[in-house]
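Reviewer 2 asked us to include a model.

Predict the structure of this chain.
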Amino acid sequence: MAEIALGAVPGGSERLRGYIARPEGGGPWPGVVVIHEAYGLDDVMRRQADRLAAAGYLALLPDLYSDGGALRCVLRTMRTLVAGRGKALVDIEAARQWLMQQGDCTGRVGIIGFCMGGGFALLTAGTGFDVASANYALLPRDADAAFADSCPIVASYGAKEPGATRTARRLERQLSAHGVEHDVKVYSNAGHSFLNDAPTGPLLLRPLLKVAQFGPEPESAKDAWNRIEEFFAAHLRGET
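Predicted model (C-alpha cells):
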C-alpha cells in the first residue's frame, strides 16, 4: 500500500497521483480502479482500496483532485460528471491503462465508485472496464450512451437517502432496457455513504450529515460488500 505518482496525463491532470493497494503474494491479479467520494482521497477511501486488495485485486485509487485539492477541483469534477466529458474521465482512463500495463495485473480491470465516484463508475461502464460497482450513484444524463456497451454492474443504495430508491429503480429499468447484466439493491436501514467504515466530510458538517443519516451502516455494508465481491469474482476471475 503506497502513494504513487502516475505523472502527467494529456488532457487530464498535470500531476496525477494516487494510492495503490496490492494483495499479498506474487500475482498476477485482476485490477480495480477505485473512485473516491466528493470529499476526495482520504483514509476511508484508502481503506476501501485496501479491502479490495485483501480480496485479491490490484486496487488503484486515483486522486481526481491531484492538481489543486478538493476545494479547487470539486466543482469542475462534478461538472465533468454531469456533462459526460472532461478531465476526470481522462484521469480514470489513465488509471485503467496504468493497471493494464502492470506485470502483476491479469489485464482484466473493474471499477468501483462511491458517491460522486459511483456516478463515474456508471458513466465509464462502457469504456473498456470488465465490471463496475456503483454505490449511491447519480445516473448518467445520457443513459443510452453510457449503457449501450456497458459491462455488468452491481449497485447499492440506502433508502434513507431522499430519492435514492427512485434512483435505484430508474437505474434498474435502464440497465434492463439495454440488456446489461446487473444486481441493484436498496437497503432499508441505510443512508448515503453507508459503505464507509467511518464518518467523512468536513468536521463542521458532520453533525448535520449524521442528522441526515449519512454515514456507516455496518449490517447493510456487510451484505453490499458480499454482493460486490461475488460479482467481481464472477466477472474478473470467472468464478461462479
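The beta strands are 2-7, 16-21, 29-35, 58-62, 105-114, 131-135, 153-158, 182-187. The longest strand covers residues 105-114. We have added this to the supplementary material.
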